[in-house]
Known about the structure:
mainly alpha; about 100 residues; single chain; Tim10-like_dom_sf; mitochondrion inner membrane; Helix Hairpins; about 65% helix; metal-binding; translocation
Amino acid sequence: MSSLFGLGRPQPSSAEKIAAVENELKVMALMHTRMLKICSAKCLDKTYREGELAKGESVCLDRCAAKFFEAHTTVSEQLQKQGEAAQRAAGGGGGGFGF
């Protein structure tokens, strides 16, 4: 439980926390932009016959976004694990934000 609260290792400064949050926001914005581009190209009819989404388009977009987010989360978790393992191997102690 002590590792959960970061006991035994130095805590990041306010500037480091702000930088980490800014970086996370950039990553999320990039993910959102990529998801919109990919899912729109895959799911939306290019002729724009109607002003509203068709049911098939809505379902496709919903599934595409869910799969995209799941893949992004899985990759992020794996990268974070690798980063933590590299820190432990270098004697750094672990932690971090994974980005």
